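Aim 2 progress update. The chain analyzed this quarter is reproduced below.
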Amino acid sequence: MEPESGNLFRELGRTPVRIDRPMNRLPAQLQPAAVGRRWPLFALAFVAVYGVRFSDIASALALASNFFVALPPDNQYLHASPLGPLLAWLLGLAGWPAITLYYLAWTVAATSAAVHALMRPWESAEERGAALILFSLAPLWLTLLTYLDSSSSQVLLFYALLLLEPGAAFAGLLAFLLVASHREQGSIILLLHLFLRRPPPARAIAIVFGAVLALAAVHLLLGQLVGLSGSRADTLAETLDRCIRFNLLQPVGFVLFALNWFLGVLALAGHHRLLDGRAWIVVVIALAVASVTTDTTRVTTLVGLPLLFWTVERVVASGLWRNFRYWPVLVALCFLQVDRAIWSDPAPVVTDSNWIPFLETLDELRREE
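Predicted structure tokens:
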């Protein structure tokens, strides 16, 4: 993709976009370029506000202790996301401090790769900053922190690296690692990636080959587990009634909390016809997949990764963002994120800051030592 030109008028499809550059009226420290240049501070501020949380530290510790001994039936679906736990077991990690640092390392790597993938197409600091701010309106960063010990950071890392347009062989390896990180999410993400971006044939074939190889490897790996009796399909069957009641029959809350403020970016792109029919099909698929899961915000955000990057690229390339003069408001909205889940009855749970649950979990872990 070529960087945005300096033209003040742009024709995108049948909709002319007028660019008046009112951002020039803002002080330099309030413009997107400031966020682009200081993105590590932006990231640290987000961590300071929201903290981190374990999604299931007991299972993470058990998998790291011996990956080949099956978890209790209700948690056995976690074995289908083997890369992170298997590597932790191979490294001999034990205890919650080591596991915490291990998954924090994945999170830092994933965040750095995603920011690099966001900024790489653009030459100017203000374009890079605009891309980061628009992308951060989605609850992805909150997802990484709220589900620290999950496969979320691995999924983001390998997909972000795939966006750097590597050679066919490396693309195949990344596809393998992505599916090995999370079998179902990785497979769907790769399908949507191929559908949206239509990479060159050699790279596309390598991606498909890597994904199929990973599916076979995960299947063989699961066959080596002792005591495995459940699967993700069993989990789906057990939670289907809850998903229907709290997702499909409460569509407004489900959709609003699926992508948070990024729905506004989609609306803006749709209004100016920056997205074609393929992108809207991806929106429907991401929401459909999330509707039959319990961690709805997390699943929508991760399965929708191809859509998030694609939409931001289209909006930044249009130059339309230059007309917005209230960038500090958008930055503030990046720090107002929530996560929605339907872990149990009687209603969906919407959470934001992770500090109190994290400290409570640490206290429990210390007492168990």
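DSSP finds 19 helices and four strands in the chain. The mean pLDDT is 89. These observations will guide the mutagenesis experiments scheduled for the next reporting period.
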